[in-house]
From TrEMBL:
EC code(s) of this entry: 2.7.4.22
Source organism: Basilea psittacipulmonis DSM 24701
Binding site for ATP: K12, L13, S14, G15, G55, R59, T162, Y168, D171
Cellular-component GO terms for this entry: cytosol
One Pfam family cited in the UniProt record for this chain: AA_kinase
Chain's gene name: pyrH
Lineage: Bacteria, Pseudomonadati, Pseudomonadota, Betaproteobacteria, Burkholderiales
Keyword entries, A-Z: ATP-binding, Cytoplasm, Kinase, Nucleotide-binding, Pyrimidine biosynthesis, Transferase
Keyword ATP-binding: yes
Pathway(s) this gene product operates in, as recorded in its UniProt entry: Pyrimidine metabolism; CTP biosynthesis via de novo pathway; UDP from UMP (UMPK route): step 1/1
Protein name: Uridylate kinase
Length: 238
């Protein structure tokens, strides 16, 4: 059997993708399907850290947060990521994957705090680590949290699992003529203002020479294909 391309990865799961076809919240069959795919790669020995978004529950820049103080809304968004992290941990457990949740926000009764050396220890022991609470700071996103934690743990790649199957020349949900890139540089993503990830996340990964692979969370087997080094989605390179 062929070997996985990567030994340690940071997987970013879109919060909104957890909704499935629902209007908000966590869709049961969607989270089960996602965890089946994650369990498959955890079981072949890939060291896996996960950052999950919160947009399915609360987003600081959403219409629902209009009129609210932005920082307050962002703290609500960060707390939403903690809820998603606990749901993911529970679902992973049902698929035989032991994981630990570490949060950038202190919620002592619920999750352990983020301690870098402890997370490295878990990864060495092949336990999946879920990073909750984003970066712990308002005005940031969980994409930036993924770039930050990915760099901190020495991941070889950030895998962005999202609703679209890669990076397009413009938003494919708005422009039917948008074309898919198989490869694109960080500088091109930033200068063309491709909004699949925010510029802070792109810049951090570029400076740390940490590639990003963008692929669809809804495409069966896509995560495994990325892990095995097969062509899937878009690679963002230096
Ligand atoms: N150039 C682009 N290529 C691909 N997707 C894009 C682009 N510009 C904007 N998008 C949008 O980015 C979204 C993916 O962002 P993502 O952060 O994963 O979603 P979420 O906000 O739920 O986490 C897609 O749903 C797509 O509509
Ligand atoms: O470091 C962070 C990460 C997240 N958030 C807040 O949490 C929300 C949910 O995160 P995100 O939008 O990145 O989730 P996703 O797009 O993956 O669903 C954001 O809108 C922000 O309000 C934040 O303030 N700081």
């Amino acid at each position: 059997m062929s070997e996985p391309k990567f030994k340690r990865v940071l997987l970013k799961l879109s919060g909104e993708a957890l909704m499935g076809d629902d209007q908000f919240g966590i869709n049961r069959s969607t989270i089960i399907r996602m965890t089946e795919e994650i369990a498959e790669i955890a079981k072949i020995g890939v060291e896996l850290a996960i950052v999950i978004g919160g947009g399915n529950i609360f987003r600081g820049v959403a219409p629902g947060a209009q009129g609210m103080d932005r920082a307050t809304a962002d703290y609500m968004g960060m707390m939403a990521t903690v809820m998603n992290s606990l749901a993911l941990q529970d679902a992973l457990k049902h698929h035989g994957v032991e994981s630990r949740v570490q949060s950038a926000l202190n919620l002592d009764q619920v999750v352990e705090p983020y301690i870098r050396l402890k997370s490295l220890h878990y990864l060495d022991e092949k336990r999946t680590v879920i990073f909750a609470g984003g970066t712990g700071n308002p005005f940031f996103t969980t994409d930036t949290a993924a770039a930050l934690r990915g760099a901190e743990i020495g991941a070889e790649v950030v895998l962005k699992a999202t609703k679209v199957d890669g990076i397009y020349s413009s938003d494919p949900n708005k422009d039917p003529n948008a074309t898919l890139y198989h490869k694109i540089s960080f500088d091109e993503c930033i200068s063309r203002r491709l909004e699949v990830m925010d510029a802070t996340a792109f810049a951090l990964c570029r400076d740390q020479k940490l590639p990003i692979q963008v692929f669809s969370i809804n495409k069966p087997g896509a995560l495994k294909r990325v892990i095995m080094g097969e062509q899937e989605g878009t690679l963002v390179h230096i």
